[in-house]
Design goal:
Length: 610
């Protein structure tokens, strides 16, 4: 639609009249239809008509508008949903992250965790259901982990969770969060039992093989009132801090079955009977196979796991290889089909079946470490000998002290050398144990495993044990992405609840990972390096971290409008996803909502509230 000038001479004077013309399509081709005569227009009137007829987008392109549509489906101007607004008054406010918390809330409901938690942590006199508070804490741990104080003060109001769960920001306080933690820890076993059934139904999980391992996480502060806080072997290399131990049992797919929060000085050996008995009590005793690392091995645990009805697969300590030293150089090694750098050798015995595994990359690594330490010890002994010979070191006690420091500095080379210090004259001598060194070379890259499960091939034996990497990955997610560490709580109950919240968040994480795997979601390379060819980065499976980061860019906010009559409107809308976000949502078969609440009319000089 456009303005067409018509020129006419009247009484010797030129006049310009304007008509409103519309371009329409007909069967005979495009035609121009005169809509109305506008008469003579001055310059300002022409500009107003042009602004009425042409709409400019943000790129500066012009598009004609149909002021008189002939499609009956288009609402008429007297429709209550149609208003005239002032473009100069359009605004955007109260923008908050939405996509990631919306996905987390969907996962929470899809697993029926809202019903499970509500069933075991029922609402009493609280004005807000504890199940909703637990959902808020778990979603926070998945999308933006922080302390309870930071959650209540800053994080909750910066997300669209208030629109999703319906809990006002004023009701989310640190005290309410702490009280909910106190109630949650009492229902841990019941929630885990129901969650196990739900996960088994959704993903058809089999619990014939369970992976068990331990990790530790340290406290910030003294935590003097926390009976779980104690010093022990720190897997975080924080021996300067007290810690707590987490025992985790997962399926072969990585879904958590049960966990225990133990005192920081608990030894690995002390947990086996406790954890196995607890799982058998809760879920029944069956012919399941327990896969554990070498830290769980002792005569007592082997006797316990060898009882009727129990099956195990354990890695033995390196010292156990001495019994099979003569087998290392003999024939009978079998190369793995899908792992060409790994060789295995099955050795049935009367009491159990053993498997020797030899890895070429691991052998190269162990030999490089020993070579570096042996050379370093040899050079250090030569320097020390020169100091003794020159008379710079004369006291035997000082020389022995220096030798002790060298043994501490080079632990990998210490077993292969015998060092002696004579009194008179004071001399330093050492000899290398060549046979022991050759025996160690034969053991490089070799690991030993044991099981009482019959019928496994060497490949099944090795691949089953390697699934322990699944529980190791669970610990990595808990510590790195969900910030299990450090622990700030000063009470044992809240420490257990904090760990439980992290485990529930990990359940959402591994559920999202499984859904992405089944959907075949890949992280695409948008700018490949064509010069490197096959060396260029390739598409890889998309992780939950990437999914949450991409969807977290989707915002929810309020569009502020003002009509020509002076009425102010607030239109709360969810931003439309970009192509990458749309690809993720489509693969997961999810539909992002455009709005969560009805539009509102603002009062005079006010903005919409959350």
């Amino acid at each position: 639609m456009f303005l067409r000038p018509y020129k006419r001479n009247k009484d010797g004077k030129a006049h310009t009249y304007y008509g409103l013309v519309e371009s329409i399509r007909t069967d005979a081709g495009p035609r121009q239809h005169l809509v109305a005569y506008l008469g003579e227009l001055n310059h300002d009137q022409q500009r107003r008509w042009q602004r009425t007829l042409v709409f400019y987008n943000r790129q500066g392109d012009a598009r004609q508008l149909r002021l008189f549509p002939d499609d009956e489906r288009i609402p008429l101007p007297d429709d209550p949903d149609v208003v005239r607004i002032r473009l100069s008054s359009v605004g955007w406010t109260n923008a908050r992250s939405f996509g990631d918390v919306w996905l987390a809330r969907w996962l929470w409901s899809w697993l029926h965790l809202d019903e499970i938690v509500a069933r075991h942590v029922p609402q009493g006199r609280e004005t807000v259901a504890p199940a909703e508070i637990v959902a808020i804490e778990v979603i926070n741990r998945l999308c933006g982990p922080c302390s309870e104080f930071a959650l209540a003060e800053h994080w909750y109001v910066s997300t669209g969770l208030e629109d999703l769960v319906g809990v006002p920001d004023a009701e989310v306080t640190k005290d309410r969060l702490y009280r909910t933690l106190d109630a949650l820890v009492e229902a841990q076993e019941q929630i885990e039992n129901d969650l196990k059934e739900r996960l088994g139904t959704l993903f058809r999980l089999e619990y014939d093989l369970l992976l068990y391992d331990l990790t530790s996480t340290y406290f910030e502060g003294l935590a003097e009132g926390n009976e779980l806080a104690a010093r022990g072997y720190s897997r975080d290399h924080r021996s300067d801090c007290v810690q707590v131990v987490l025992a985790l049992v997962v399926t072969r797919e990585g879904f958590p079955l049960a966990h225990l929060t133990l005192a920081g000085n608990t030894r690995d050996l002390q947990t086996v009977e406790k954890v196995v008995t607890a799982v058998e009590t809760r879920f029944g005793k069956s012919q399941r196979v327990w896969v554990m690392d070498r830290g769980m091995i002792s005569k007592q645990t082997l006797a316990f796991l060898s009882q009727p009805g129990r099956r195990y697969l354990l890695a033995l300590r390196r010292s156990g290889l001495s019994e099979f030293q003569d087998q290392l150089g003999r024939e009978g090694w079998q190369r793995m089909d899908q792992h060409s750098e790994v060789e295995v050798k099955l050795m049935p015995r009367e009491e159990a079946t053993y498997l020797l595994s030899r890895s070429r990359p691991r052998r190269k690594k162990e030999r490089a470490i020993r070579r570096r330490q042996r050379r370093g010890l040899a050079l250090a002994l030569q320097r020390l000998e020169r100091q003794v010979t020159s008379g710079r070191l004369k006291k035997r006690d000082k020389i022995v002290e220096r030798v002790g420091r060298l043994k501490e500095r080079f632990p990998k080379a210490r077993p292969f050398v015998t060092i002696s210090v004579s009194d008179s004259p004071c001399r330093l001598q050492w000899t290398w144990d060549i046979p022991e060194f050759k025996a160690a070379l034969a053991r490089d890259g070799v690991s030993l495993m044991r099981t009482n499960q019959d019928g496994w091939t060497p490949t099944e034996f090795w691949e089953t044990y390697m699934q322990l990497t699944v529980v190791e990955n669970a610990f990595r997610v808990l510590k790195t992405h969900l910030l299990l560490r450090p622990v700030w709580h000063h009470y044992a109950g809240r420490t257990k609840a904090h760990v439980f919240i992290c485990v529930l968040a990990y359940t959402l994480w591994i559920t999202l990972a499984e859904l992405a795997r089944r959907a075949g979601l890949m992280t695409l390379i948008h700018k490949p390096d064509t010069e490197r060819g096959s060396g260029s980065p390739q598409p890889r499976p998309m992780t939950p971290e990437v999914i949450l980061r991409e969807l977290g860019k989707i915002k929810i906010g309020d569009i502020l409008l003002e009509t020509t009559e002076g009425q102010k409107l607030a239109v709360r809308r969810v931003a439309r996803p970009d192509p990458e976000q749309t690809r993720i949502l489509t693969a997961l078969h999810l539909q992002l909502p455009e709005r969560l609440a009805a539009d509102s009319i603002c009062s005079e000089d006010s903005e919409p509230k959350n």
